[in-house]
TrEMBL record:
The lineage of its organism: Bacteria, Pseudomonadati, Pseudomonadota, Gammaproteobacteria, Pseudomonadales. It comes from Pseudomonas synxantha. This is LysR family transcriptional regulator. It comes from the Bacteria. InterPro entries: HTH-type_LysR_regulators (IPR050950), LysR_HTH_N (IPR000847), LysR_subst-bd (IPR005119), WH-like_DNA-bd_sf (IPR036388), WH_DNA-bd_sf (IPR036390). Transmembrane segments: none annotated. Residues 8-66 form the HTH lysR-type domain. The keyword DNA-binding applies.
Length: 307
């Protein structure tokens, strides 16, 4: 029996798989739930096999569904490449690519490059999302994201990667706090105090919670806020101490009554890498963004002192 494939079905199925929900997949695809259910039923009938298992908790992929998802991502990525390469011959570029990064990269290293790139590429959309480095590598590897910025010792085997910048994590505290009596402290020592943190689920929050769990010491979080700026305000007010990137401390310390000391732990010195399955195989507009990001941070990387 001949099998027929549809680009809309590919996009819809990817959205359902990424959200584990017909309802959320429908919302992301700008379709009604009945229309989505009907499309999936017709797709499964056409293929003669089940792609999704439905339950009260959502949907999961069958083995056939996993294979369909893998190829749907590859096909859509190839279409993006075709669009980008053809539009080199037109005025301007049009397209979309997904970029995943952790908290620090999004707040400190991406904004100036993203802003300038979007000015010169008004017809390109960047789907930028915050994720943990391990999750970013998996997404780039399976093709659900074209580019990722990862940090730390995460393994990027099977991907191409380029070093962007190095950064150290700092402990900040209100002036007069006991932890500021030393210029360098370990995370274990810092854990005896209460913390101000970004919201639960943020990449840096999860990263630090895992580091505390590895030490078998609970991390006491007194206040959770939505931005680095709010962290500094709360620390200055005496709500607790916080761990922030050095770049963030340099940018936000201003006239606030806070001090900082360096974290001694090996993982506190982090390198950030840009990774992709194949930089040369990216759509032209995504490849141009990658080149811009690397070039922007090259001077800082060259000037950085050896660790």
């Amino acid at each position: 029996m001949a099998m027929h494939f549809d680009i809309t079905d590919f996009r819809l199925f990817i959205n359902i798989a990424e959200t584990s929900s017909l309802t959320r997949g429908a919302e992301r695809s700008f379709l009604s739930v009945p229309a989505t259910s009907n499309r999936i039923k017709n797709l499964e009938d056409n293929l003669g096999m089940k792609l999704l298992e439905r339950s009260a908790q959502g949907v999961t992929l069958t083995n056939a569904g996993k294979t369909y998802l893998q190829h749907a991502r590859i096909i859509l990525a190839q279409l993006e490449m075709l669009t980008g390469d053809l539009q080199e011959f037109a005025v301007g570029l049009k397209g979309q690519f997904r970029l995943l990064a952790n908290t620090t990269a999004i707040t400190e290293y991406l904004p100036p490059v993203v802003g300038e790139y979007l000015k010169t590429h008004p017809d390109v959309h960047i789907d930028l999302r915050e994720r943990l480095s391990d999750d970013i590598v998996r997404s780039v590897r399976d093709g659900s994201a074209e580019l990722g910025v990862v940090s730390g010792s995460v393994v990027t085997d099977g991907l191409q990667s380029v070093l962007l910048v190095s950064s150290r994590l700092m402990v900040i505290a209100p002036l007069g706090h006991p932890i500021l009596e030393r210029r360098e402290v370990s995370f274990k020592e810092a854990l005896q105090y209460a913390f101000v943190s970004l919201l639960e689920g943020s990449a840096i929050n999860v990263f630090l919670s895992r580091a505390a769990s590895a030490l078998h010491i609970p991390m006491t979080i007194r206040v959770q806020v939505a931005s680095q700026d709010a962290i500094f305000r709360m620390v200055e007010a005496g709500a607790g101490i916080a761990v922030v990137p050095q770049a963030c401390y340099t940018r936000l310390k201003g006239q606030q009554q806070i001090g900082a000391c360096t974290l001694l732990d090996p993982w506190a010195l982090r390198t950030f890498q840009l990774c992709a399955q194949d930089f040369d195989g990216l759509p032209t507009f995504a490849r141009e963004f990658a080149n811009s990001l690397v070039e922007y941070h090259r001077p800082a990387l060259n000037d950085a002192p050896p660790a």
